[in-house]
Amino acid sequence: MHMCAIAGILDLPVSDGIQEAMLATMKRRGPDGKGQWSFRRGCLLHTRLAIIDPEGGGQPMTVSWQGETYTICYNGELYNTGELRRELEKEGHVFSGHSDTEVLLHGYTQWGEAVLDRLNGIYAFAVWEHGRERLFLARDRIGVKPLFYAEYRGGLLFASEIKTILAYPGFPRELDETGVAELVLMGPGRTPGCGVLRGISEMEPGTYGFYEEDHLKKTCYWRLRDREHREDFLRTCSHVRELLTDAIRRQMVSDVPIGTFLSGGLDSSLITAVCSREMEKQGRVLPTFSVDYLDNEKFFRAGKFQPNSDAPFITVMEEHFPLETHHTTISPEELAEALVPATCARDLPGMADVDFSLLVFCGQIAKRVKVALSGECADEIFGGYPWYRDPEIRDREGFPWAQNLRQRHALLLPRWRDALGDYAMDRYRETVSACDILPGTSPLERRMKEMVNLNLHWFMQTLLDRKDRMSMYWGLEVRVPFCDYRIAEYLYGVPWEMKNYKGREKGLLREAMTGLLPEQILWRKKSPYPKTFHPEYGRIMKEGMNRLLSDKNAPIWSLMDPNAAEKLTGDRMGTPWYGQLMREPQTMAYFLQMDAWLRSYRITVQ
Q1: Contact 225/233 with Cβ under 8 angstroms?
Q2: Any idea what DSSP says for residue 233?
């Protein structure tokens, strides 16, 4: 299993210097080694974070089968390697190590692109077919592992991160209309497939492509399909419990130490409980990692979205399970210092202090373990967010986590405002119209399925980007068991009244996991990843914003009207900028990130 970085250059000039420049941008993702393989038409590059088979499994890896030769570079991990390997051995394949890279490559030689239907895992990979001289690119169904590309000057560049493509000499760093719309109207979310910068695209989740004859032809191989749900509530509960515990157990496979994120909330506590029990059987104690903000008990303000703080619930988990708990406390100054590194880790402006704190936190975790399991994506799949449950927001057209389009439009300079029109609503309508929903579905059920698709393709991608970039910045691999595609597929067909059991957010999940957790955690009211309430953080951001407003030549003012920005961040924000947590200090931080990004990436605005 390889949490790593991959990249490639095809049909473009390549030198040792170019390869080294690109590899240098990949080092943080793969600090344990690097590999490169050159051929007549280009090269494949790889840096490695070794998790399984540290001795074997070097990349790029080459295999010959039935007269054809194939070379792979791969970032990810498979959770059904054993089953695939046994199937391939029956077909006559012989393996030299026990890495999943080797199993995946042999699987591709055996089944071609159909191998994707057999994979359970998270991945982005490229295979060069020597005889046919074509490149295959693929990304996992849910989009946990990143993959960007650019068709450039008659050739192709691809990489795990945008910064690696930008390291190719002469590649333009330009922002056009689409990029401005993505930053100001959609940000920190972004359209699936869009790399924000001109010329940079993303392989969408659940997509593969062949690059031949100077062109990448993409195919979608997975999306949520509606089906009739025939199981009663009890059977549905036991099905959910089986799927989730199986996903968590599979994702514990590692040759290096693992731990879990633990917020004391439902999702991370469920993962921690299953992992703790599994490790107890082996006579080991599970390390857990929790984060809080300096003086949070003094400044915490309960609200609709954040009803209580996490600390007391973490203590309850410590009392019920054998855990080796580690706590990180972050000061406002540390948060502010992470603004530029977090922006560079994501290659784009992100979710403000929710990114900054995660970057600092992952740095602490990486000192103790190389792998951690985390609770992302339960809310998207099980319907946990407030916007699933508030009829007023739910029934309104538009992205439910960005109900401030008028404010966002008002920030744009007139030249952009006129050009961009209905950009955001068009993206919203495209997503909704592409949903797979059975005919005869009731209006409420139809809307809930639309919500799942909107969340899966948009909000969840922002969170997965954040978790991948902030953790891999430190060479820490984070696994997300709720993203097992089998869970997403099954839950999509389950009716809302079951998901909303007892009128509680994620009621089905809570009922399904009864007996695994202490009751007060099992039925705890949802609380999101915490933000800081410390007034000092707000003061630091306000100071930064004032500096920005006094610099009339700051690059951000080529996109936005400074007067509108001052007004927006000076008012009490009725609607958060994005999601539930981005209010005044976070919105100022987002603008500061935008400016820092334009400067440090030397972006030209078209």
Answers
A1: no
A2: H
* Catalytic status, residue 362: no
Q: Which of 4, 43, 73, 483 is catalytic?
A: 4
Cα distance from N-terminal residue to C-terminal residue, the chain: 42
Integer angstrom CA distances of residue 102 from 1, 77, 201: 10, 11, 28
- Collapse the DSSP code of 325 into the 3-class scheme (helix H, G, I; strand E, B; otherwise coil) and give the result: strand
Listed in sequence order, the residues at least 6 apart from 474 whose beta carbon sits closer than 8 Å to its beta carbon are 28, 362, 363, 365, 366
Buried (b) or exposed (e) across 350-367, using 16+ Cβ within 10 A? bbbbbbbbbbbbbbbbbe
Given a cut of 50, the residues of the chain with pLDDT beneath it are 1, 305
Cα separation of 521 and 466, whole Å? 26
Query: C-alpha 451: how far from its chain's center?
Result: 18
Please state the separation of Cα 225 from the chain's center in Å: 22
> Where do we find the tokens 């707000």?
538
Give me 388's structure tokens.
Answer: 């699933």
Q: Which residues contact 429 (CB under 8 A, 6 or more apart)?
A: none
Would the CA dihedral through 198, 200, 206, 209 be positive or negative?
positive
Smallest Cα–Cα separation from 37: which of 70, 3, 2, 4? 70
- Alpha helices, H only, 160-199: 162-166, 177-181
Q: Which of 398, 400, 380 is nearest to 499 (CA)?
A: 380
337, 343 in Cβ contact below 8 A? no
Sign of the Cα pseudo-torsion (321, 326, 329, 334, in order): negative
Q: What is the pLDDT of residue 422?
A: 94
Q: What pLDDT is attached to residue 289?
A: 97
At 1 the pLDDT is: 47
Q: Quick check: 508 and 501 in contact, CB under 8 A? A: yes
Give 442: exposed, middle or buried? Use CB within 10 Å, 0-12, 13-18, 19+.
exposed
Q: Let me know how many helices (H) and strands (E) the chain has, helices first.
A: 27, 19
Those residues with Cβ within 8 angstroms of residue 435's Cβ, 6 or more apart along the chain or in another chain: 224, 449, 450, 453
Cα 529 off chain centre by: 15
- pLDDT of 193 reads 97
Q: pLDDT at position 575, please?
A: 83
